Inverse folding.
């Protein structure tokens, strides 16, 4: 089995060397598809990254009734901390309220007027999930100790909607690209099959099973996929690095350039190349093998 | 068991066991052409059979039926007792390991040397390298191409290319060899050389079926001759007698079957 696999791998590269134009067309076609898919993927990744980074900073303030005692406020704060959907909570005594501190800074003559601080104690809450914010707020508003809950709801909702729209568009564009790539790869590999019809004919003639006949072409598809992915990554990576530097320099915000998302992205492009090449070959080979005339005449 | 004679001065012992049997076989191609009609044929182990007749009369269709490139629309085709029409894809592959097929146009890989053409066909079947080496040398010696083993097919003459094609057909030690117009592209001297080679292979016990137009060779070799026309078997002359071309009672049907040949 190993010697046969070795033979087929050798034959794959011999075939690619014999039909360089075909090999080039197949590789470029896969590379172009993956390059466009890579750009879409990077846009989606960066939008998600930006949205998540922004939304990660989103917290809401829970203001207690001014008439409750510090102890009652502290107990309510502990209740908030105990809620499973709350990630973080910070108790802000009214004397440490940013508004009060700012007011005091701007009006130094009021430093001794602590007793006249009209603000209530409050808690800054960060939800585990952004989608929990609304439910948490609604729940807390029903507590007797709570007077109001404040945040910037429109911005959060807009960001969530935008992020979801980008994700959905990315998925749709991705599906369209995959279908297009498969069609192009299928036709390209059909051409390579046509160029190698005599080998297929001889294999069938001497008693090779359909699986054996298909194997070198599947290997060829996988190699085209890997090469195509390599070319796409080779072009995409420096372009992206250049774009990231320019955007950071001109607009002041950083694009995603490190981390597991990028590593996963590279793996996804490589795997996508292999899978696209493999599926394209399978479809072409099956179609070819089911056509006896093309398999055996004019070979 | 019975004996048959030949011009080359020997008698062959042929088993009475049929290795090939066509039972009321008809082939209707998808384009509506009736390539074969109600054909019955029994070929015994070790026989040498010529299929003769005008072009497009069903000779090649019979060979294609045997290596299951074409399926019978009616009747049964049996090879070594197996109904080839009922074989799975893997079954067809196994069947083809029991058959050698030779073509008029050789169908060699022109980018591989003589040796590599044979090696390729054996590597595909996962034959161990030491067996490939031994068998390739054995075959090249048998067909007289050992000295040309490192040449490419385009450096060979037509006869040498056909000998290479025959060597490839023999790689699996097939008990049956099918040859479709093996001398169609060759001059008379080279044709005789090829027929002598086929005779020699037959002498070793291989059943040989040859579709040919070469009536002169057919007449000289005194082998069994099956005459076809209009997609029907109209004559079956036993070995040992001089062959007289039959009259075709289906002359008007010939053009249609001819169309089938060019199509397929």
């Amino acid at each position: 089995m190993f010697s046969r696999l070795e033979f087929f791998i050798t034959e794959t590269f011999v075939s690619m060397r014999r039909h360089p134009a075909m090999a080039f067309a197949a590789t470029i076609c896969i590379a172009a598809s993956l390059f466009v898919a890579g750009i879409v993927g990077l846009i989606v990744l960066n939008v998600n990254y930006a949205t998540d980074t922004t939304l990660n900073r989103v917290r809401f303030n829970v203001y207690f009734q001014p008439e409750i005692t510090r102890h009652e406020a502290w107990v309510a704060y502990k209740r908030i901390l105990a809620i499973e959907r709350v990630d973080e909570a910070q108790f802000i005594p009214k004397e440490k309220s940013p508004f009060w501190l700012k007011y005091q800074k701007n009006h130094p003559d009021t430093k001794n007027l602590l007793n006249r601080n009209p603000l209530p104690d409050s808690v800054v809450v960060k939800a585990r999930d952004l989608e929990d914010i609304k439910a948490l707020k609604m729940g807390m508003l029903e507590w007797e100790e709570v007077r109001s809950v404040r945040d910037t709801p429109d911005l959060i909702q807009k960001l969530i909607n935008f992020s979801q729209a980008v994700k959905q568009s990315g998925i749709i564009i991705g599906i369209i690209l995959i279908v297009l790539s498969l069609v192009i790869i299928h036709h390209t590999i059909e051409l390579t099959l046509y160029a190698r019809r005599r080998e297929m004919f001889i294999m069938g003639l001497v008693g090779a099973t359909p699986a054996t006949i298909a194997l070198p072409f599947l290997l060829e598809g996988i190699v085209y996929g890997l090469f195509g992915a390599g070319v796409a990554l080779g072009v995409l990576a420096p372009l992206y690095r250049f774009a990231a530097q320019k955007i950071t320099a001109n607009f002041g915000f950083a694009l995603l350039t490190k981390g597991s998302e990028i590593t996963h992205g590279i793996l996804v492009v490589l795997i996508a190349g292999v899978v696209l090449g493999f599926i394209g070959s399978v479809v072409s080979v099956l179609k070819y093998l089911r056509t006896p005339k093309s398999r055996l005449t004019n070979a | 068991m019975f004996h048959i004679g030949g011009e080359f001065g020997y008698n062959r012992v042929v088993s009475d066991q049929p290795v090939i049997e066509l039972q009321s076989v008809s082939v209707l191609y998808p384009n509506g052409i009736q390539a074969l009609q109600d054909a019955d044929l029994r070929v015994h182990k070790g026989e040498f059979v010529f299929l003769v007749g005008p072009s497009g009369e069903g000779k090649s269709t019979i060979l294609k039926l045997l290596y299951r490139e074409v399926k019978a629309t009616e009747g049964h085709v049996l090879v070594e007792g197996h109904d080839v029409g009922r074989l799975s894809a893997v079954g067809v592959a196994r069947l083809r390991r029991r058959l050698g097929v030779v073509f008029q146009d050789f169908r060699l890989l022109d980018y591989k040397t003589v040796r590599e053409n044979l090696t390729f066909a054996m590597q595909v079947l996962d034959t161990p390298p030491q067996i490939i080496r031994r068998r390739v040398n054995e075959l090249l010696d048998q067909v007289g191409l050992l000295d040309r083993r490192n040449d490419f097919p385009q450096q060979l003459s037509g006869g040498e290319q056909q000998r290479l094609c025959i060597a490839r057909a023999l790689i699996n030690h097939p008990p049956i060899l099918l040859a479709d117009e093996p001398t169609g592209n060759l001059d008379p001297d080279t044709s005789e050389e090829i027929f002598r080679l086929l005779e020699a292979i037959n002498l070793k016990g291989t059943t040989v079926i040859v579709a040919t137009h070469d009536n002169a060779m057919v007449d000289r070799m005194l082998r069994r001759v099956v005459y076809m026309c209009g997609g029907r078997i109209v004559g079956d002359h036993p070995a040992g007698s001089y062959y007289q071309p039959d009259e075709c009672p289906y002359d008007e049907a010939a053009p249609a079957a001819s169309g089938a040949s060019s199509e397929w």
Summary: The domain at 59-151 of chain A is CATH 3.30.70.3040 (Alpha-Beta Plaits). Residues 293-298 of chain A have pLDDT under 50 and may be disordered. The interface with chain B takes residues 1, 3-4, 7, 18, 198-199, 201-210, 212, 292-293, 296-297, 299 of chain A (CB under 8 Å). The beta strands of chain A are 60-64, 86-92, 122-127, 146-150.
